[in-house]
């Protein structure tokens, strides 16, 4: 597969031959999705936490006597069905990360690159150097390329 090489002024600077083993595959959405879910799961903080009935600051004394009140039997006020009680099945601090085999990661990258090449959304630059380090000038050049 051949692709045009551009410079920062969006002018042609030649052609490059891309390997069909990487850029010529028929994209598989399931592999790409597995890699994306893996990346997003690694990124999650997992710092959510709520107090359970053993962690709330409530008394553990029996609320009222067992029999004779006409109401249901209750123990501590820290039970989840009371206001100020702990949360049942509360979230805990944990890591959401899971393992993904290296071959699946590599295959997902190849299929993502193949998808971009198939949709003609791949841009190859000869060099990304500029004369003056100015954001405005670089932004205009990237707009010409359709990248910004």
Gyration radius, rounded: 29 Å
Strand content: 5-15%
Task: Quickly count the domains.
Answer: 2
Number of helices: 4
Q: Which percent range fits the helix content? A: 25-40%
Structural class: alpha+beta
Level-2 CATH architecture of the largest domain: 3-Layer(aba) Sandwich
- Quaternary assembly: single chain
Question: Largest sheet, if any?
Answer: 3 strands, mixed
- Compute the average pLDDT: 92
- The named CATH superfamily of the largest domain: Ribosomal protein L4/L1
- Extended strand count: 3
Low-confidence stretches: none
Tell the overall outline.
elongated
What are the secondary-structure elements, in order, as H or E? Answer: EEHHHEH
Description:
With 148 residues, the protein is an alpha+beta fold. It has two domains: 97 residues, Ribosomal Protein L4, Chain: A (3-Layer(aba) Sandwich), CATH 3.40.1370; 41 residues, no CATH class. The chain has four helices and three strands. A three-stranded mixed beta sheet has the order 2-1-3, with no helix packed on it. Helix 2 packs across helix 3. The relative contact order is 0.22.
């Amino acid at each position: 597969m051949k692709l045009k090489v551009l410079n920062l002024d969006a002018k042609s600077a030649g052609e490059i031959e891309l390997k069909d083993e990487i850029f010529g595959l028929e994209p598989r959405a399931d592999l790409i999705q597995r890699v994306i879910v893996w990346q997003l799961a690694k990124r999650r903080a997992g710092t959510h936490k709520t107090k359970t009935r053993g962690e709330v600051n409530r008394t553990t004394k029996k609320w009222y006597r067992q029999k004779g009140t006409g109401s249901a039997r209750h123990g501590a006020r820290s039970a989840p069905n009371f206001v100020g009680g702990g949360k049942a099945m509360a979230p805990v601090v944990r890591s959401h990360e899971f393992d993904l085999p290296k071959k699946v990661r590599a295959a997902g990258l190849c299929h993502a690159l193949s998808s971009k090449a198939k949709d003609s959304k791949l841009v190859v630059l000869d060099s990304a150097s500029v004369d003056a380090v100015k954001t405005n000038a670089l932004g205009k050049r990237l707009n010409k390329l359709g990248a910004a």
